[in-house]
Structure formats: C-alpha cells, structure tokens
Amino acid sequence: FFTKAHSPFPEPTLDEKIKADEFLSASNHLAQFFGILGTIFTPVQSDISGNVKKLGKFIEENPEKVVYVNDIILLEAGVTQSISIDALLWLKRALEFTMLFIDGIVCDTKNGTPNEDLRPLCLQAYEKTLKKYHGWMVQQIFNLVSRACPSRRDLLASLALGETDMESVVVAQMEEVLVNLKKNVTIINQLYAQYNLDTEVKV
Ligand code: EIS
Q: Which residues contact 46 (CB under 8 A, 6 or more apart)?
C-alpha cells in the first residue's frame, strides 16, 4: 500500500514548492488508508477526498496558473472565505494527524517497543493536531471512532494487502512516505503562517 510505485508525496523543489497534481494524488491515496482501516472510517476517507476534489476543481478552473500547491495559496490568500484555502487547511490537518500516527508506529518499532494497541498513538496524534479544531461533539465522535482503531498486527497486514510476513517492509515504506510528507506539511504550514491563513475556528 505504501510502496513507492504508488503516488508518493512530491519532493519539494529547491525553492520549496510542492507539485500540486502529485500532492493531490498522494493525498487521495492516503485517504484510502482510512478505507483500509475499516468501513467505520469511511467518513474520514470521504472528508479527505472531498478536500482533494475541491482543490482539483480549483486547479481545473485555473489552468496554467496552478502548478504548485504554493500557487493555490498565492492566488487565494486575499479571497475572503476561499473554498480552496479552507479545503487545503483541512487536508493539511488530516495529513498532519496521519503523519504523527504513522510516525508513532515507525518510532515505536525502531525503539523496539512496538505496541499492539495503537489507540494511544492515535489519541496522541489527535491531541497534537486535530483536537483543538474540533468542538465537543466532534471530539466525542472521534473518541468513539478511535476505539475501532485496528491492532498493529491487523493494520500492518491490511497495508500489506493480504501478503504475509511483510511487517518490516510495511514499516520501512511508512518511514519512506514520512520523509516527503513531513516536508510537504512543513511548507504548507509556513505558507499558512506567512499569509496568516490559519484559523482556530472549531467544527
Ligand atoms: C472540514 O471537516 C471539511 O474537511 C471541509 C469543510 O467542510 C470544513 C467546514 O469548515 O469541515 O468534521 C470533519 C472535520 N475534518 C472538518 C471531520 C470528519 C471526520 C469524520 C468524523 C466521523 C464522522 C462519523 C459520523 C458518524 C455519526 C454516527 C452517529 C451514529 C448515531 C485511526 C483512527 C483515526 C481516525 C480519525 C482521523 C481523522 C482525520 C481527519 C479529519 C479531518 C477533519 O477533522 S472542504 O471541507 O473545505 O473541502 O469543503
């Protein structure tokens, strides 16, 4: 699932630009990660693919103006209630959550302390990323949904798409994905900070 052949997150250019089409296909691919976790996570998958669709539409409607994710922000920074700025912000937050969750799995594995119960990692990632943007209601839903978090063994098996004895391969692929994913998220965070586009509004 995490293999390189599948849409990887783009390596940013030297001047810190992120190829938009590659970023969106990689994000869409990662959205499917939640589908693999089980049907209860389908709303998460739809939320992320919804963000990706809106951004894809913006790119289609602005041919030649958007090559990089950076272009979307530059074009829309001054627009009040820009759909694209909102979609990218939520997409970035979902990626940040997923990134920390996967990073936790990789780190625990490397430290020789893998834990079958992944819920603590899930909750830690949540505390650090999405929680403050969620109102009481959504926090409760998250809490409930996180109980369906698969075990480490089941997760790694699902991500190996049924192949057995692939645990170390999958973890290595996760580590590989994290490299550019982190770079992409960092750049988007910098741009949102620079243009003062981040918001604390809760859903
Ligand atoms: C954003 O979503 C949209 O993404 C954005 C725009 O519409 C914006 C509004 O300004 O809202 O509310 C979303 C938020 N997204 C905000 C949460 C979605 C997660 C789904 C929650 C589950 C709902 C289940 C409902 C079931 C009710 C059942 C009741 C039964 C009686 C290992 C486990 C971890 C899983 C969790 C991971 C979460 C990841 C990401 C979520 C991102 C988020 O917080 S826009 O859309 O701009 O494109 O229009």
A: none
pLDDT in tens, 51-73: 999 999 999 999 899 999 999 99
- Are 27 and 48 within 8 A, CB to CB? yes
pLDDT on residue 115? 97
CA distances (Å), origin 176, targets 4, 95, 97: 8, 15, 17
Q: Where are the domains of the chain?
A: 20-193
| CATH architecture for residues 20-193 | Orthogonal Bundle (1.10)
C-alpha 153 – ligand 1 centre gap (Å): 26
The protein residue with its alpha carbon nearest to ligand 1, atom 47, reads 87
Ligand 1, atom nearest to 93 Cα: 42
Q: Where are the alpha helices (DSSP H) in the chain?
A: 20-37, 42-61, 69-76, 83-110, 119-128, 136-146, 152-159, 167-194
Q: Which atom in ligand 1 lies closest to the alpha carbon of residue 50?
A: 48
Distances (CA, A) of 105 to 64, 115, 122: 40, 8, 10
